[in-house]
């Protein structure tokens, strides 16, 4: 099958699972539109059981696409995911799906692993969706940038870009006057969850970030970003800030608003639909230049923290 796939049925492989990230369960159920209710009770992620269980059955599923193969780092987890989401094929090596599927999903969130996880499929010419963040260091960003320049079909995003609570403000905050301050809160780690906060904000402010300064610690990141539009963005990513994550505040010269993302299911489904749209049309839902800038922000946040809070200019990444 030749990419893009137009209206043809698409076979997907769901690949990889790391601790703390249950996307192979939820994403496979959302795509396939079905699950085994008894097997779902064994899913080790209560949040997934909760939000999937709340959905009317008719909202599940993306037409014309199916997760037909699954592989996870721990073989026992692959069998469990397959039972929950009714996936027909469990493979013993990730590369075994080459020649059996049309595209793959790398469903892990350790950015430093993503080049090597994606490489076999990029080299085989398969379209690849990489879970957030695409990468977390300069060398890997250049590898992905080279692959994109060569025309390799690769996309990556955070589900928070597609949060329905934030979407009305994407490029549309004129009622508040020019934005001056944006606050965002997130839980867990900057390396894996900082991108959730960044990608919540990015469609609102647009591109044009200037610098990043992280004066926090590994457990308590306090990140100040400067934007060329005269906006100061402050993001806190704190390990145990579970109940206070997903908030953003927009403050302008004439008004403002505080918002919170709470509908994880809709965000994920819209994100996955954007990948399917890419597979059908060949047009990425987000220009890679934006993904590249977002990864620069992630990387700069790590580098700044490790340098004792030094300001990292995005110009240091080059064009």
From TrEMBL:
Gfo/Idh/MocA-like oxidoreductase N-terminal domain ranges (all copies): 63-145
InterPro entries recorded: Gfo/Idh/MocA-like_OxRdtase_N (IPR000683), NAD(P)-bd_dom_sf (IPR036291)
Protein name in UniProt: Inositol 2-dehydrogenase/D-chiro-inositol 3-dehydrogenase
Keyword Cytoplasm: no
Keyword Cytoplasm: no
Pfam families: GFO_IDH_MocA
Assigned keywords, A-Z: Oxidoreductase
Lineage: Bacteria, Pseudomonadati, Pseudomonadota, Alphaproteobacteria, Hyphomicrobiales
Gene Ontology MF terms in the entry: inositol 2-dehydrogenase (NAD+) activity; nucleotide binding
EC number of the protein: 1.1.1.18
């Amino acid at each position: 099958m030749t990419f893009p796939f137009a209206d043809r049925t698409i076979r997907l492989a769901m690949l990889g699972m790391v601790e703390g990230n249950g996307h192979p369960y939820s994403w496979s159920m959302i795509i396939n539109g079905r699950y085994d209710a008894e097997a779902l009770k064994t899913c080790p992620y209560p949040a997934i059981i909760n939000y999937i269980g709340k959905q009317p059955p008719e909202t599940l599923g993306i037409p014309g696409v199916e997760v037909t193969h699954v592989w996870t780092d721990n073989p026992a987890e692959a069998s469990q995911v397959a039972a929950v989401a009714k996936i027909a094929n469990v493979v013993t090596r990730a590369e075994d799906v080459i020649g059996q599927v049309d595209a793959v999903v790398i469903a892990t969130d350790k950015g430093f692993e993503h080049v090597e996880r994606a490489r076999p499929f990029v080299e085989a010419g398969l379209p690849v969706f990489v879970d957030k963040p695409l990468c977390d260091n300069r060398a890997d960003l250049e590898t992905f940038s080279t692959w994109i320049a060569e025309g390799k079909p690769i996309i990556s995003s955070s589900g928070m870009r597609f949060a329905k609570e934030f979407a009305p403000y994407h490029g549309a905050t004129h009622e508040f006057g020019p934005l001056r301050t944006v606050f965002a809160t997130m839980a867990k780690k900057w390396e894996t969850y900082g991108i959730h906060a960044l990608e919540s904000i990015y469609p609102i402010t647009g591109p044009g970030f200037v610098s990043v300064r992280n004066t926090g610690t590994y457990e308590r990141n306090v990140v100040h970003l400067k934007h060329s539009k005269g906006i100061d963005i402050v993001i806190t990513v704190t390990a145990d800030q579970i109940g206070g994550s997903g908030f953003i505040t927009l403050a302008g010269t004439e008004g403002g608003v505080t918002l919170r993302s709470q509908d994880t299911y809709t965000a994920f489904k819209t994100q996955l639909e954007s990948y399917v749209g890419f597979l059908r049309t060949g047009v990425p839902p987000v220009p890679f230049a934006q993904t590249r800038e977002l990864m620069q922000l992630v990387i700069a946040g790590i580098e700044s923290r490790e340098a004792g809070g030094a300001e990292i200019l995005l110009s240091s990444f080059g064009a």
